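Continuing the batch. This is chain 6 of the set; chains 1 through 5 are on the previous pages. Same settings as before, nothing changed between runs. Recording input and output for traceability.
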Amino acid sequence: MTDPNPNQPNAVDAARDLSQLAAVEIVSLHAVDLMTAAALKLGLFEGGDEHRDLAEARILIDVLAGFTDAAARNIGHHHAAPLRDGLSSLQKAFREYSAIQDEPGAGPGERYTGYVAPHTK
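Output for chain 6:
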């Protein structure tokens, strides 16, 4: 059977590519994917206001916070710090865009990070 789309990597090729990466690189790649998806759902990209979906962003930010919390113990501070910074920025943006404010500690991911205040203006 031939590959229906020869330009798309198949599962074997993808697994082979992953086998060449260190665990910290794989963790970082997946964290960046979650950050990017959350930023898209927050409407942080050009023209993104029309695609803003805070319910979806909440899920992605919460998962990213749990993922970052779990990963930090294994990848070390110097790798975890940028992930935490990105997460914090997303949490602050979420608070800015939310018409109804969550109680402190009840925002997305805050069960892992504690309360994250919005950006000051």
